[in-house]
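Sharing in case it's useful to others searching the archive later.

Someone asked me privately for the predicted structure of Alpha/beta hydrolase, so I'm posting the question and my answer publicly. Question first, with the sequence:
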Amino acid sequence: MSDIQILHDFYSHPEGANRTLRICIPDAYYSQPATYFPVLYMLDGQNVFSHPESAVFHTWCANTTMDRLIAEGRIRPWIIVAIDHLPDRFSEYSPWNEPAVGAEGRGWLFIDFLVNYLKPFMDQNYRTLGEPHWTGILGASLGGLMSLAAGKVHPDVFGRIGAVSPSVMWANGEIFRLWDHPTGHWCKIYMDTGSLERYWYYNIYLDYVESTKNFYEHLKSLGLKDHELRYVVAQDHFHNEEAWQARLPDIFTWLLEDAKGV
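And my answer, the predicted structure tokens:
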């Protein structure tokens, strides 16, 4: 079974704040001491694992899902690094200002932290496969938006992008303008939404179904192929961790499959 290590007060220099990291180490890391492992970075880290020190209610249960898929031979073992969000999540996970909720666009500081501080720390202190085709980023809602932004501006770091119920309508759809051409790098991009994800939040109408479909079609129009891009609509799923937990086995199976054509 996997082991979860929690690092408190991990300092983020770009943001000037301490962070909590939750690192899930697969059993094979200890039983195969000469082996190096791919790494998946997940956002909203307090909601990621089934663990006594994680969120009180529903989580993604990413550790138990990973353990089961490994045992079934469906994926190879991955290290999962889950990063807790800071108190002002809207600003932290917003690459652009969103006046409707008073969010300052500090998302680029978080991406700076991921790329220039956290990933080097992981590569220096753990046996990791550091190439982009062995490095993924996965988040939901604004975390999904951040995953799409990070993967676009740093394709040399993140080859695998998981955008679960992504808030692509945020900041008047700026993510459409950021993705104005393919990255030119090997990539796998997973996107989905639940069929019930339509509601008002503050002064924003959040239609995840329509906006995510539009963004998928936008990426297809840029030339991304079926082996690079997957889009799923989950029937009767709403916008919460319980729904994302249910979808995670299929997400992991597609997004984390061994790289081809590298």
